[in-house]
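A.,

Following up on our hallway conversation. Structure tokens first:
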């Protein structure tokens, strides 16, 4: 076969070189979708006389001179000439064999950026090859691929040429679907992208708006939609307890609350109650801005499960938060005669065993805990509901681990990181989403202020005055280069400094390195109003709820991300008192830090902040832990490809209904070996 000759005797029956794994390439088919970052135009030769300083050019000429020079340092200098001009090639690093390749009389084709030097035009470290006068020029632009150590451009080009010649390029889209969405054929689009004709300006291709790119992005989004829908279907096929009787426990819990549910809480509670009445596991994500009152909704679901004869588990990503849930749940449930237990990794062996015994024999109906709940051999007498708070902090793998324990419980995930619509449509296509879009009444808005760090003294006086007047405050210390140790040190220093400067204020401190008993003791004192000012590391970021706290100072706010700032700020403004959040920052500000501070200063709307955050950071980083299991998008960009996402959703539905075979083909092309993980 002619194609096989062209690719230099490579054979698709042989395994791929091991180094390809570094690029995430496991199979030959994966190479089809290993698309160029950019292109170089080697289809034309520029006469040397026309080459300009600073121009990236391909030239061809006969070697007239080749010499290893030793001054000012060892280097290889070669002169080549074509009919009208002459130019030097200079190599500061070279092998001995290159002096033979570049011997006088050989014809060289070289590519590189030309510079006007002391001895005329030269190219340093040109890419070159030895040719003959009639060696043909390539007919297409030369692709530049993402490469890695041990996987050079040359190797990638060879293998990809092989795959383009021999792999299966069959279209996985049914013709009707492809036509409906006006998409380019698959074979045409990969061929275009790997070897574009020279008249396609490479910018059109690298900007990813060309129809060939549109098709690839569509396919990628489609694969994501299909796999999430399938995962959802498979989980639906699992059985779950039907919990539909109206229970007295729910009514008693509601009756004991010091407030009425907001309309939004009522609505999402109905949605959740409906899910729990189904014979398959609920997979619902409850979104609500910081302080919107998700916990009580989850507690109602727990009451429903317990009233229906099952157990419920509350999981939180940090000890502080899990513990808060524990106390809150106890205060709600113990008066109703329901025992709540606490389970965390840091419990003594004996305490842990006792909690686990109560869960397995059914004496305890409700448990709050950290991921110890996932990791340990916890068995339940009958788990009906698992609540996962701040779910974005957990990896998908952890969620899955919980799913695999015995009968499938209903799952309620909660997140205060509002996910913009496009993101939730794509990454959360396997979940039902409920949104609490209303804050409980009686909250006064939080005033946000930006203050440069040199006004610290003034700020300390303000904090003292507020605390003396009965308010409580947080003083949050910055993350320093992600180093927990340094963060701890600044927290300790700040604590010492504030304690010394404010002798009439009761200052406490909480940080991640404290053991959980000490942490709990400090938090309890703060909750009880026995500590006025709480110096904290970002351990308090999620979920902490002390309604009397009305002032928050955040140091080095310029170093923090938007989601984090929003979460932190959400610790105040939970009661009726007028609240303020003061962001201390140090100049000079980077453009990014300035943009973030502006957004957080101007808005307290979590959804707005999240969508701005997405614009600043892109979805990969934005989603954090979620990406560890979900198929990530390499090509599509949700900030710009909304229409393609809509189309991919429609196509996914149509294909699942009408073209199951095409679904299989498409997923195997796009997910290949990763597919099993997605389905797990
Ligand atoms: P989040 O959604 O951030 O987890 P929480 O569940 O911690 O919010 O609730 C924040 C505070 O609002 C808590 O003190 C909670 O008791 C209170 N709360 C919840 N719902 C209502 C309501 N409908 N009316 C008044 N206060 C409420
Ligand atoms: Mg919460």
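Then the amino acids I'd put at each of the 680 positions:
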């Amino acid at each position: 076969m002619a194609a096989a000759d062209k690719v230099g005797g490579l054979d698709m029956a042989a395994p791929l070189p091991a180094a390809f794994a570094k690029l995430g390439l496991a199979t030959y088919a994966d190479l089809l979708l290993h698309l160029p970052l950019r292109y170089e135009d080697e289809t034309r030769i520029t006469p040397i006389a026309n080459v300009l300083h600073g121009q990236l050019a391909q030239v061809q000429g006969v070697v007239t001179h080749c010499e290893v020079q030793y001054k000012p340092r060892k280097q290889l200098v070669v002169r080549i000439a074509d009919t009208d001009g002459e130019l030097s090639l200079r190599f500061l690093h070279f092998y001995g064999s290159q002096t033979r390749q570049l011997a006088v009389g050989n014809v060289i084709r070289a590519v590189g950026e030309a510079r006007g030097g002391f001895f005329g035009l030269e190219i340093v470290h040109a890419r070159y090859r030895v040719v003959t006068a009639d060696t043909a020029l390539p007919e297409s632009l030369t692709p530049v691929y993402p490469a890695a150590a041990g996987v050079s451009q040359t190797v990638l080009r060879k293998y990809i040429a092989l795959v383009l010649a021999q792999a299966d390029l069959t279209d996985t889209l049914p013709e009707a679907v492809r036509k409906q969405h006006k998409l380019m054929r698959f074979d045409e689009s990969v061929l275009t992208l790997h070897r574009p004709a020279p008249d396609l300006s490479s910018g059109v291709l690298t900007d990813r708006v060309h129809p060939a790119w549109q098709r690839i992005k569509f396919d990628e989004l489609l694969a994501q939609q299909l796999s999430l829908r399938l995962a959802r279907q498979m989980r639906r096929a699992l059985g779950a307890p039907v919990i539909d009787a109206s229970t007295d426990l729910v009514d008693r819990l509601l009756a004991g609350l010091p407030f009425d549910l907001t309309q939004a809480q009522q609505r999402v509670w109905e949605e959740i109650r409906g899910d729990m009445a189904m014979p398959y596991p609920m997979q619902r994500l409850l979104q609500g801005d910081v302080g919107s009152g998700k916990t009580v909704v989850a507690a109602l679901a727990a009451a429903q499960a317990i009233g229906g004869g099952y157990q419920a588990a509350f999981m939180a990503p940090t000890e502080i938060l899990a513990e808060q849930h524990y106390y809150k749940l106890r205060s709600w449930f113990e008066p109703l005669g329901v025992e709540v237990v606490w389970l965390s990794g840091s419990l003594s062996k004996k305490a842990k065993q006792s909690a686990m015994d109560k869960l397995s024999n059914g004496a305890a109906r409700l448990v709050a805990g950290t991921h110890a709940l996932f990791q340990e051999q916890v068995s339940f007498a009958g788990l009906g509901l698992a609540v996962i708070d701040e779910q974005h902090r957990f990896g998908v793998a952890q969620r899955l681990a919980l799913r695999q324990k015995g009968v499938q419980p209903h799952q309620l995930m909660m997140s205060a990181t509002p996910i913009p619509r496009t993101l939730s449509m794509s990454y959360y296509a396997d979940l039902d989403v409920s949104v609490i879009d209303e804050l409980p009444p009686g909250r006064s808005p939080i005033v946000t202020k930006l203050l440069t760090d040199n006004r610290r003294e003034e700020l300390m006086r303000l904090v003292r005055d507020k605390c003396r007047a009965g308010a409580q405050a947080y003083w949050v210390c910055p993350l320093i280069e992600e180093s927990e140790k340094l963060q701890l040190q600044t927290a300790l220093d700040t604590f010492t400094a504030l304690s010394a400067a404010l002798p009439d204020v009761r200052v406490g401190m909480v940080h991640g390195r404290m053991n959980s008993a000490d942490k709990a003791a400090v938090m309890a004192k703060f909750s009880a109003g026995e500590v006025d000012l709480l110096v904290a590391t970002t351990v308090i970021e999620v979920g902490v709820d002390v309604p009397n706290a009305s002032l928050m100072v955040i140091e080095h706010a310029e170093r923090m991300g938007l989601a984090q700032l929003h979460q932190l700020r959400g610790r105040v403004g939970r009661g009726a008192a007028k609240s303020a959040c003061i962001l201390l920052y140090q100049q000079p500000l980077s453009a990014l830090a300035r943009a973030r501070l502006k957004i957080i200063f101007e808005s307290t709307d979590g959804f707005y902040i999240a969508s701005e955050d997405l614009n600043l950071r892109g979805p990969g980083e934005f989603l954090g832990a979620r990406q560890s299991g979900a198929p990530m998008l390499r090509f599509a960009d949700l900030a710009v490809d909304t229409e393609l996402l809509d189309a991919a959703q429609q196509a996914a539905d149509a294909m699942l209904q009408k073209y199951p075979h095409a679904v299989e083909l498409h997923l195997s092309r796009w997910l290949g070996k990763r597919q099993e993980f997605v389905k797990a």
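Residues 259, 261-262, 265, 288, 290-296, 416, 440, 543, 545, 547, 574 surround adenosine-5'-diphosphate (ligand 1) (CB under 6 Å). Curious whether your intuition agrees with the design.

B.
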